[in-house]
Amino acid sequence: MGCTSCASGANGQPKGCKNNGTCGTDGCNKLTVFDWLSNMALPGDMEPFNAVEIRFKNGRKHFYKNPENLTLSIGDVVATEASPGHDIGIVTLTGELVRVQMTRKKEPLKVDDLPKIYRKASQKDIDVWQEVRDREDTVQKRSREIAMGLGLKMKISDVEFQGDGSKVIFYYTAEERVDFRQLIKDFARTFNTRIEMKQVGFRQEASRLGGIGSCGRELCCSTWLTDFRSVNTSAARYQQLSLNPQKLAGQCGKLKCCLNYELDTYMEALKEFPKTDVKLFTEKGKAVCQKIDIFKGLMWFTYEGEFATWFELSVSKVNEIIAINKKDKKVAGLEEFIEEKVIEDSELFNNVVGQDSLTRFDQPRKRKSKNKNNRNRKRNPTKNKKKNA
Fold this sequence. Notes:
By secondary structure, the protein is of the alpha+beta class. Helix content is 29%, strand content 19%. Strands 2-1-4-3-5 form a five-stranded antiparallel β-sheet.
């Protein structure tokens, strides 16, 4: 966290500033950008770029022009142009780095066409803004009840009030197209304000809600991941992963984004491997591939009709056989290309606590059985005499 108020409080519990990502330092947001040009002066004949990046709730960012030439810095709360009324946001970036951001996001560098910043937010603007933000949880709960009453197959994941309270944005997710014309009428009648519906993807929803993944860490999308690339099942196939939907799906119900992290490394390693559908021609018959090990660089082949016997070959040996087959020649057999591995003797277990044998606990049981027989003899001496007779 970027501010001292986010430190630990009493009993080791997080203290927090209770602003839910809207603190003045802008250190609680994963989309915070470090202005590495802030300490550099512009050339004398160059005018500063008169555009500002403003952040709103849920990481929503837009670019605005500064017609009044206000002195703005990162963390300032400003009132911006909206339709209708005005909105309240936090400055996240100023200066020349805004030009770089607009170029990266493929935004036109026409400052005059951007909406404008009205003023720095007054205390009255901030009070109204905080008041409507406190209503969001209640409005979200009530909106879900209305949607369920209409039988709509949708989930309202978040609610965002405009800074002046004149408009409410409902973020929802749905598998299919939803007819929410009646829903908007009910919302407008209940909340007495302008209604806007925005559909978001399941990944974006998980990014806003957050959670713990199967790896035991916080979700990547809610901590540092900013772009959502498409993930295909082919990524799991290239990495030799079992196609189990329960293990490959994340909190959002889609394929995990981390499947793409190491995909490039696997693709680079697979360039040395021949295709798995290639067949090796030998005098004993055709051999087909059954399994590969990318880390060890090994492939297992079997003869057609003898699938119980597998032959372990290195990638270099397989490529050698393929090169021979391309010359319309056959090898004698796969046995000739098996490399013998010398396994070095290594001490797998060190006896550091006197553990001599795994069956050491069985010995006391035998002693107990002997003692029990001796006790029976002493108790019943007449029976023992009859047995001996």
